[in-house]
Amino acid sequence: xxxxxxxxxxxxxxxxxxxxxxxxxxxxxxxxxxxxxxxxxxxxxxxxxxxxxxxxxxxxxxxxxxxxxxxxxxxxxxxxxxxxxxxxxxxxxxxxxxxxxxxxxxxxxxxxxxxxxxxxxxxxxxxxxxxxxxxxxxxxxxxxxxxxxxxxxxxxxxxxxxxxxxxxxxxxxxxxxxxxxxxxxxxxxxxxxxxxxxxxxxxxxxxxxxxxxxxxxxxxxxxxxxxxxxxxxxxxxxxxxxxxxxxxxxxxxxxxxxxxxxxxxxxxxxxxxxxxxxxxxxxxxxxxxxxxxxxxxxxxxxxxxxxxxxxxxxxxxxxxxxxxxxxxxxxxxxxxxxxxxxxxxxxxxxxxxxxxxxxxxxxxxxxxxxxxxx
Length: 374
Hints:
This protein is α+β, with helices and mostly antiparallel strands. The chain contains ten helices and nine strands. The longest helix is centred in the first third of the chain and has 32 residues, at 105-136. It is elongated and about 100 Å long.
């Protein structure tokens, strides 16, 4: 028994026939012992073997150990947030540089495509991060949501362009007069850089324009050309169109409110005659027959009576450059107004020219409300 006398004061020696009794004793004293010596006894209670088992059991006063689960980290979600933030900053700088700065449209399109591509990659990585969050509770859910929000603007611009590309005819200019479009006073010419070269609009493309935009037709107003020209100039100012060249109007200040300047006709001078002298008046006065619509004299007359204004403008939001040509033609007691709008870059303007012309004509109809014909 000297062996047991050297044991620690807080140790206990248990000898029992039943293991269940031993487990109960351990349960009762689990807060009071550090070491347990289990004695294996035979049926005759003879000491046959001693096994020493060390169980590090905490005291009752000590707090229980907190088990913490180590969550993995989703690197895809964090990478998605960084890439999406870069795409958003690139898109914002590109929009500002093109709308208010010197950035040309071909570079604008290229940078927007790069930004949208980065945003698409970010959304893909964010989806991977959300899957990892669902399957293994990985860190990165907030980063994935931020990446999706950051990528919304570049992807929205790309989606709008794709929708316009498939739903609008592949033309870069429109005209309200498909048979006789107004002629440019100065042919627009812009450096396409990396964009494909453009070709002239064909008759088939004009028919496609009529099928896509049947409401874009000439406007006829029951009024004098001076009244219509004044309204046109007001709409031009409100639409932020800068007139760069004019024909048939005061070219000294083409953006002003001056009345049209008619081309002077050559008049023959006759010697002074006596008012009292009355010549012989024929009894029958022949009525001249009307000339054909398309001949040299008719073209000269129209050239003398037409007022043509050519200007340039930018769209309100994206600042896409367009060239605008407005023709005012006086016919009998009515005035005919035609407009021609062309985008400067690309073979497909995504409907920008049609929207510009439609907005101008609606504003002109509202300005001349009451004298509009057909």
